[in-house]
Amino acid sequence: FMTDRYAVVGNPIAHSKSPLIHAEFARQTNQDMAYAAMLAPLEDFAGTVKKFQAEGGKGLNVTVPFKQEAWKLATLLTDRARLAEAVNTLKFEPDGTILGDNTDGAGLTRDIRENLAISLAGKRVLLMGAGGAARGVLLPLLLQKPERLIIANRTPKKAIELERHFAAYGRVEGGDYARLAGSLFDIVINATSSSLSNALPPLPQGVFAPGALAYDMMYGKGLTPFLQFARDNGAAQMADGLGMLVEQAAESFFLWRGVRPQTLSVMSLLKSC
Ligand code: NDP
């Protein structure tokens, strides 16, 4: 019997933390598996995936910029991946089926609920951004039954499109940042890429309700401009996206191996390196 092979595929991929996370999960749960980082050429994602599958690979994580291509490549989709139109996890079944899932939203909601011990039910939630990361988390967020979920985006049209796309699954509204003035939110999530360029989304002051959580999906940058703004404007708790990263990995691991690994020790490990 051969060791089961997995990988994370992206471009670039050298700095991915996924190999470390999955090696730790495998060690913890005694799984005979290997997990590598794999660079795919920008013009040949499908070829790279098919080759890995033909060689007996069991599954892939997919990252920037291939999540939409992975969605197209999958022959069977989970509901959350179908709606997100983005896939971050592929599972190659023995009968040739390519199952596509998106575990980003489960990772985010699990991090908020389990690790931060904050319920989303009945809360006023603001999601900033309408790109791939926002799409990926919308269904799992709505399934937590927030009182209201507002999507704000610099290009409002994209937020309004998401409102239409997800309207059947809960109370969701999309628009620009200006309309947020005067509203209060219990949970504010930054799903924009603004922190990458050290920028801040144009969030009005005074949107943080007493006790509010500010969550930045970005990780490894310390206190981002958004988290600083949140701290200065009355947010009670600040979190970066490291927990989401580890939890989405755990969800993928569970899909592949049927075992749920422990995440807190892996989060501590990543914080220390
Ligand atoms: P996309 O490129 O698909 O979308 C970017 C979004 O950010 C758009 O909505 C864009 O608005 C908005 N944006 C960019 N710059 C600014 C700015 N200066 N002010 C306001 N809005 C801005 O990126 P993704 O959705 O794929 O990724 C977003 C972030 O999420 C990344 O930083 C990534 O690191 C993080 N992420 C973290 C994960 C985790 O596990 N922790 C998982 C997945 C993503 P517009 O539409 O107007 O251009």
Major beta-sheet overview: 6 strands, mixed
The overall strand count is 12
Q: Give Rg in angstroms.
A: 18 Å
Structural class by secondary-structure content: alpha/beta
Poorly predicted ranges: none
CATH architecture of the largest domain: 3-Layer(aba) Sandwich
Number of domains: 2
CATH class of the largest domain: Alpha Beta
**How many DSSP helices?**
10
Strand content: 15-25%
Shape: globular
Spatially, the strands of the biggest sheet line up as 2-1-3-5-6-4
Percent helix range: 25-40%
The N- to C-terminal Cα distance equals 34 Å
Mean pLDDT across the residues is 97
What molecules are bound to this protein?
NADPH dihydro-nicotinamide-adenine-dinucleotide phosphate
Per CATH, the superfamily of the largest domain is Leucine Dehydrogenase, chain A, domain 1
